[in-house]
Input
Amino acid sequence: MSDEFEDDFPGEVKRFMFVNRKAPHGTIYALESLEVVLISAAFDQDVSLAFLDDGVFQLRKGQNANVLEMKNFAPTYRALEGYDIEKLYVERESLEERGMTTDDLVVPVEVVDRARMTALMAEQEVVMSF
Amino acid sequence: MAYEVNGVTVETDEEGYIEDLSKWSKELAEIMAKEDDCELSEEHWEIINFLREYYEEFQIAPAVRVLTKQIGKRLGPEKGNSKYLYELFPYGPAKQACRYAGLPKPTGCV
Amino acid sequence: MLHTVNKSPMQTNDLASCLAHLGDGRLLLIEDGVYGAIAGTGAAKQLAAPASEGRVYVLGPDLEARGVDQSTVADGVQVVDYNGFVRLVAEHGPHQAWV
Output
């Protein structure tokens, strides 16, 4: 019930970036990252998500982890907008290396090139890597 | 803990959330509500049904403030506010409504 | 920004990806990442440019633990101890771990 308390902590807003570089189902990192992101939404920070390297596979359409009897969390990325998390950056080179385009992704994103991604990372006050 | 509903055994965790979401039924929601001395009205069902649809689409239970905002969008501002939701679900919309709706506890709900 | 890499460059692409996003940041190699600092390796060639600018560091105790003598570390790569690590974070933070 975190919404009852958030106004009690007006503190300063920091720029947080969650960097996602791993494919979704082989390890727990992607799901952990998503859960931390959802929790962070309660604290009214300036949150962005970066997807690069194999992290772009997290957003791939058509996933169904239920066949592995694992949580199918790909649809959850579509809920982020409702949590006011709207900055999703995907690296163009990482997509291209994997034969993907934005048409292959479950959610609208901003595609940025490697140089822009580098600049975005350097702008952050806190970087969390998964 | 477990409920018996129409011959089906529905297991719950220690906080009372059901473990197999596919075993949910309206009757189960009504039994859970009765235990809390709560009679489910049409207004309760609006919220419970919304939660089930939200889970179906996004595979998570929404945080309370997300629920409040989305209810406001769908059912109007007189329902999209904490006061209304807490009147319907005095134990908290997440803890109570999600439980009746057969959802897991919302992520980020402490 | 201070970047750290803790995996061997022969095992994962963490070092390569980090270097591609280093910008004008600093890089510290720790744990199995220190294998990337050995002169003559492919990894050492990749990090030669920032190393020549004095922006690459390697954690001494992790070298020693792995039997990598400091004399075999590539040119320009600076060996630091734990205090040096702390100083780097303080001077060049925030910190991004490539894990």
Remarks:
- The mean pLDDT of chain C is 97.
